[in-house]
Design a protein that fits this description.
- The complex is a heterodimer of chains A (325) and B (265).
- With 325 residues, chain A is an alpha/beta fold.
- In chain A, 56% of the residues lie in helices and 15% in strands.
- Chain A has helices at residues 4-7, 14-39, 143-165, 170-185, 190-196, 199-238, 243-276, 282-313; strands at residues 46-53, 64-67, 70-80, 86-93, 105-110, 117-121, 135-142.
- The model of chain A has no long low-confidence stretch (mean pLDDT 81).
- Chain B is mostly helical and 265 residues long.
- Helices cover 87% and strands 0% of the residues of chain B.
- The chains are: A alpha/beta (325), B mainly alpha (265).
């Protein structure tokens, strides 16, 4: 039975001990509350930074914002705006503001295990400081979301690799063919033997080339001969005193002879007309016939000469015959 | 047949009524105790003396031994949590987990349970015996308000004891957690402060205070109330203590579960 009054005289310094305990408790409580308030930055001037993000998955109030792995601030409040954007109000004590510059970038990373992390990056600490009440975008990189896509792609790649490496795959066959090819290339006919399949085929090709070379040499000689023939023909046909030249002259002569023949024939016609009048003037007639005979003889001689000339000059028509009227 | 059913139902009904009556008188007593506690006229040199003695017996006497035990328990739990977290690559969360588990939940509950085992059982027995021996009535007959001079000081003393012990143990656990996680140096105090500031938000601080206060109230109000309700027969005293202890355990667990539910659900 615990009866305080009975035991009362046994307690030494009761008031002091209880007072000490109470004082200790009060001290602990006050100190702790003070410490927590200090830790929460109540006694320290701080500045607010607003980060905007598309969603606040994994973000919680009190979450630290780190710079180079050191916490420089924490999420104070999260709000959803009317436009559906998330605004994260970050509380940053003024002593930590020097790590943030106007060019600082803020990212949120969500690792596979553990909570998301908000990180600040300042490329150049000499840049102008972050303005008061600044608003910055929070870039989010979600590892977990990309993993299924990554796995699907990796699976495809691995399947391809498997198909490539299994026995009888195209790549193995190709490699075997390459091996055969290179083996053949080491033969007497080198690359050509590799391409044609055997040494015999390669030899045939070499022979063909040799023959073609010989043929080309003969052709060269032939073409030289043809060349000289052509030159000669040219000379005979179109050169000075050539066939064409003679033909031209002959034709001129033929023209002249034919003109003469026509004249003679006209005269014969006149003679015949005169013959009709023989009865009337027989005397005059005998003299005219003598002249006519001389002229006809002359024309005949000219034509004869022409025929001979043409025959001499025209090599292709041996049977040329001029029929006189 | 009908009589049997009737008798059974009557017994059940009586038990339920008694059970409900127990809670009703408990709540009534707690309300009355609170009202007395905040009334300045309750306090005079006599009540102060009883409060001081109650605090001495409940808190001061067990302070060294129980603090040693709490330190040992805290150390083991911190080591387990920290090394496990390190193995899984979650060291960042070790300190927060340790603070939440030990300072917010485990230490206040263990403190309340230990005081319940030690002082509440004693108070329950004492009040039940006083009741059996008609001492309460005798005191009232000579004009001494038993509520004011016997019970309220015990309630106040018990509550303050639980608050004081929880505070001391919490600070020991925090210091121990710092030493285990960061070692014996002060360079990481800023990081530690950050975790502390994250865990102890204003609602959490208020919730913790309220929880410890309710633990303190429960460990004294329930035994006194149960002792007073015991029939005035000597052989009912053990039954009264038993009932009081079961009810106290139930209430402590209820407070703890409710606090957890409010915080994390």
């Amino acid at each position: 039975m615990e009866r305080a009054p009975v035991r009362a005289p046994l307690i030494k310094n009761l008031e002091f001990k209880v007072g000490l305990l109470l004082a200790l408790t009060a001290l602990i409580t006050l100190a702790f509350v003070g410490y927590v308030l200090h830790a929460r930055g109540v006694f320290e001037p701080s500045r607010t930074l607003t980060l905007t993000a598309d969603n606040a998955d994994g973000v919680s109030v009190g979450m630290p914002v780190t710079y180079s792995g050191f916490a420089i601030g924490q999420v104070q409040r999260m709000t959803l705006t009317d436009s559906g954007q998330v605004h994260l109000l970050i509380d940053i004590p003024e002593k930590n503001l020097r790590w943030l510059r106007s060019t600082s970038v803020f990212t949120m990373e969500k690792p596979l295990v553990g909570a998301a992390k908000i990180k600040a990056f300042s490329a150049d600490l000499k840049d102008p400081p972050l303005p008061a009440n600044a608003e910055r975008e929070l870039f989010t990189g979600d590892t977990a979301q990309e993993i299924p896509i990554l796995v699907a792609r990796l699976k495809g790649i691995l399947e391809n690799v498997e198909a490539m490496t299994q026995a009888g795959s195209s790549i193995n066959q190709s490699l075997a063919s390459v091996s055969t090819l290179t083996q053949r290339m080491t033969g007497d006919y080198g690359v050509m033997e590799g391409m044609l399949g055997s040494a015999e085929n390669a030899r045939k090709v070499v022979d063909s080339i040799d023959r073609a070379n010989t043929l080309l040499k003969s052709l060269n000689v032939v073409s030289l001969k043809v060349d000289s023939t052509l030159a000669k023909t040219d000379q005979r046909l179109f050169g000075q005193a050539g066939v064409m030249d003679s033909v031209q002259r002959s034709l001129n002569q033929v023209n002249g002879i034919l003109g003469d023949a026509r004249e003679s024939l006209k005269k014969a016609d006149a003679v015949l007309a005169n013959a009709q009048g023989i009865s009337a003037d027989i005397k005059g007639a005998t003299t005219d016939i003598g002249t006519l005979r001389a002229e006809v003889d002359d024309s005949l001689t000219k034509v004869n000469h022409l025929i001979n000339e043409v025959n001499r000059k025209w090599p292709f028509a041996r049977d040329a015959e001029i029929k006189l009227p | 047949m009908l009589e049997a059913i009737n008798g059974y139902l009557t017994r059940r009904g009586a038990t339920t009524l008694a059970w409900l009556g127990g809670w009703a008188s408990l709540i009534g007593f707690a309300a009355s105790a609170l009202i007395h506690a905040v009334t300045p006229s309750t306090y005079n040199s006599a009540t102060r003396s009883v409060v001081a003695k109650q605090i001495y017996f409940t808190a001061w006497q067990i302070l060294p031994g129980f603090s040693l035990f709490a330190t040992l328990l805290s150390f083991v739990i911190i080591r387990i949590v920290v090394s496990t977290a390190r193995d899984f690559g979650l060291s960042d969360y070790a300190l927060e987990t340790v603070i939440r588990v030990l300072v917010l939940e485990l230490l206040p509950l263990i403190t309340a349970l230990f005081i319940a085992l030690r002082s509440s059982a004693a108070i329950n027995t004492e009040v039940a015996l006083m009741n059996v021996h008609n001492e309460i009535k005798a005191l009232e007959d000579v004009g001494v308000d038993s509520m004011r001079f016997e019970f309220i000081p015990r309630v106040i003393g018990g509550t303050i004891s639980v608050l004081a012990l929880s505070a001391v143990r919490g600070v020991i656990a925090l210091a121990l957690a710092y030493l285990v996680v960061y070692g014996a140096q002060f360079w990481n105090f800023a990081a530690f402060s950050l975790v502390v500031s994250k865990v102890f938000s204003l609602p959490i601080l208020l919730g913790l205070s309220l929880k410890v206060f309710m633990f303190g109230l429960a460990v004294t109000v329930i035994p006194i109330s149960e002792g007073l309700r015991a029939p005035q027969k000597l052989f009912f005293v053990p039954i009264a203590v038993l009932r009081g202890m079961v009810r106290l355990f139930f209430v402590l667990m209820l407070i703890e579960v409710a606090s957890l539910a409010i915080k994390y659900i």
